[in-house]
Amino acid sequence: MLTLKLLREQPEYVVERLAVKNFDASEIVEQILEQDSRRRSCQTELDAALSVQKIKAKEIGKLMQQGLKEEAEAAKKEVAAMKEKSKKLEAEMEECRQKQDDLLVLLPNLPDKMVPAGKNADDNVVVRMGGDIPELPENALPHWELASKYDIIDFDLGVKLTGAGFPVYKGKGARLQRALIQYFLDFNTKAGYMEIEPPIMVNEASGFGTGQLPDKEGQMYFASQDKFYLVPTAEVPVTNIYRDSILSESDFPIRMTAYTPCFRREAGSYGKDVRGLNRLHQFDKVEIVQLALPDASERALNDMVLHVERLVNSLDLPYRIVRLCGGDMSFTSAITYDFEVYSAAQKRWLEVSSVSNFKSYQANRLKLRYKDAEGNIQLAHTLNGSSLALPRIVAALLENNQTPDGITIPKVLHEYTRFFRID
């Protein structure tokens, strides 16, 4: 959530920057400032009324001591009228505050100065590429056919048990899944990220804190009786650990990693891009989260990008890093780098990670603050990244490593899978 201070001091700048996200903020900003002006005007009136009430209260005491009962009663009636006015002013202020809050959550985060303008993924900028794209024979199979051939993932059984988008992993497929999760967690903890095992259901306050609510309410699975949401990513519970916290400068940086299953309704998804593991309603993902001081968050973002790059590179997968344009960014992000791996059988790039800096946007919603050297309370910065999302990693591993004798497993996974080939 953007701060009122920023909107008061630089409303034109806010409108200009949000235009990079193709978001017209002019009317909302104007309405926020109107409510802010009205609320502050009420506050001035209320302060004056309360001040007069204090003075009158003292006068009433003196009049009573002097035996001037009529004058004292008249002063009491005046104070009662002022108290009634104060109640109305307080109610009006609360109404303004609520309207202001309702409007503030409609504004997305400001894009960083490095974010390119653009409308969709076609306007994203490729930052760099790595690895070699394998040349597969003409009869190479896509991963959903390989999964069926080697009986390692059963999509039809998932439909029977739950529905489309809920695959069942079997045998070496299940072991590969578990091996990747453990490898990703080990890779992250060796780099200084503390492992967290969070709940996979969160309350509304947690969803609001990281910006999933109210923006992505329709994409989240909801347990209505308890009013809990199944997590769309571990970012939500892990970042919310520090909701309503005031930290010290010495506490930073805070680095955390977590594995969770993730749940997304993916409403409106259809077509060839959702075949097999390309888009699921339930999938496994390992996440990294950082909390940083404002002057260190840009460096933290670069470190996270390099960390994820080393992880992807260790799997011997061809990849590219893409800086998202304004029109392709999330509501809450200030700047995002996507990692895509090449699927040789599908002949397309598959997104496997997004690494984002939210700056103070989430922290303002979370009330995640710290006390600086001068004792002032400031907002922290939050960052997160997939490290990694499993489904498309598995898809690329199966397709790119297929041979006539089976599917070879990358060397870094051998100690985790305890097998070297799927055949």
Describe this entry's structure for a reader.
By secondary structure, this protein is of the alpha+beta class. It has two domains: 4-104, Orthogonal Bundle (Helix Hairpins), CATH 1.10.287; 121-422, 2-Layer Sandwich (BirA Bifunctional Protein, domain 2), CATH 3.30.930.10. 41% of the residues lie in helices and 22% in strands. It contains 13 helices and 19 strands. It has helices spanning 4-9, 11-18, 26-65, 69-104, 143-149, 155-161, 171-190, 204-209, 235-239, 297-314, 361-366, 390-400, 414-417; strands at residues 125-130, 153-154, 168-169, 194-196, 201-202, 222-223, 228-230, 245-248, 254-263, 282-292, 319-323, 335-343, 348-359, 368-371, 377-379, 381-389, 402-403, 406-408, 421-422. The strands form five sheets. The chain has an eight-stranded mixed beta sheet. A three-stranded antiparallel beta sheet has the order 5-7-6. Strands 8-14-15 form a three-stranded mixed beta sheet. Strand 14 (368-371) and strand 15 form a beta hairpin. Helix 3 (26-65) packs antiparallel against helix 4 and helix 5 packs across helix 12. It is elongated and about 110 Å long. The relative contact order is 0.14. The model has no long low-confidence stretch (mean pLDDT 94).
Features:
single chain, 423 residues, alpha+beta, Helix Hairpins, BirA Bifunctional Protein, domain 2, 2 domains, 8-stranded mixed β-sheet, elongated
Describe the secondary structure blueprint for this structure.
Layout: H1 4-9, H2 11-18, H3 26-65, H4 69-104, E1 125-130, H5 143-149, E2 153-154, H6 155-161, E3 168-169, H7 171-190, E4 194-196, E5 201-202, H8 204-209, E6 222-223, E7 228-230, H9 235-239, E8 245-248, E9 254-263, E10 282-292, H10 297-314, E11 319-323, E12 335-343, E13 348-359, H11 361-366, E14 368-371, E15 377-379, E16 381-389, H12 390-400, E17 402-403, E18 406-408, H13 414-417, E19 421-422
Parallel strand pairs: 4-9, 8-14
Antiparallel strand pairs: 1-11, 2-3, 5-7, 6-7, 9-10, 10-16, 11-12, 12-13, 13-16, 14-15, 17-18, 18-19
